[in-house]
Design a protein that fits this description.
It contains three helices and eleven strands, in the order ααβββββββαββββ. With 247 residues, the protein is of the alpha+beta class.
């Protein structure tokens, strides 16, 4: 009887130990398998990373290689703008004016002359403006019209008669007693001369304009009354009524 009970007890203990051992082995096997699978996954990701990075770089490179669909039209317009252009004599602020542009591949120069007569023969003042320029993108204004930026590197004003010198002297901040001498150019690049629609360089270093060449004439945007085109949101929304002719 004791022998039988002993065997039963031993058997139960053995069975329990065996079950525990089996569970531990199974757990270890599962953990090992999971660890192995994780290692494989990490290795796979590590192997795929350079490939993904390479593909991403290739996609960026391909995008960079794609030509600008408007490049030819923009280059053609820029080339056609190069040269010397002049406007007709037109009324301006109680007097008369005429514009003369000298446009080079990367630089532009403007002589804005004011006259006391409608034939534009008796000049009173000359404003000279020059700087870099570029076309940027097609404008919504119309076909063949491009947005343009005309930078201000230099700006001067010259009075050609005493009356003009006195008038300019009364403007702030560019004026002042003796500020303008007849026949002598005065730089207004830094302080500007808002009374003439020319603003300080720190606040207005570029004209945001539009440009087109139509029927052999050069057109810019129609300027606002305050002449302020110092930011992209002030860019003209239509071309000037009269174009400039090549000279």
């Amino acid at each position: 009887m004791k022998s039988t009970l002993f065997c039963v007890v031993i058997g139960l203990v053995f069975a329990g130990c065996n079950a525990k051992h089996t569970a531990e082995v199974t757990k270890k096997d599962t953990t090992a398998a999971s660890s192995s699978e994780g290692t494989k996954t990490q290795a796979k990701k590590a192997a795929e990373a350079p490939k993904a990075d390479k593909e991403q770089k290739a996609a960026v490179a391909d995008k960079a290689k794609k030509p600008d669909p408007n490049a030819d039209a923009k280059a053609s317009l820029a080339k056609s703008m190069v040269g010397q252009w002049q406007s007709a004599c037109f009324p301006a602020n109680g007097s008369f004016a005429q514009l003369s542009f000298d446009v080079k591949a990367e630089q532009w120069h403007l002589d804005y002359k004011s006259f006391s007569d409608k034939e534009c023969k008796n000049v009173t003042t000359t404003a000279k403006i020059s700087g870099p320029w570029k076309l940027t993108q097609p404008s919504k204004v119309g076909e063949g019209v491009y947005e343009a930026e005309f930078g201000f590197a230099q700006r001067t004003i010259t009075a050609h008669v005493d009356g003009a010198a006195k008038f300019l002297a009364g403007l702030k901040p560019c004026g002042g007693e003796g500020a303008f001498e007849v026949g002598k150019a005065k730089s207004i690049q830094v302080e500007g001369c808002p009374g003439l629609g020319m603003y300080p360089a720190a606040k207005c270093g570029t004209d945001f304009d539009i440009a087109a060449v139509k029927n052999g004439q050069l057109f810019f945007g129609e300027r606002p009354k305050d002449n302020n085109m110092c930011s992209a949101d002030k860019r003209p929304t239509k071309l000037m009524q009269y174009g400039l002719k090549r000279i």
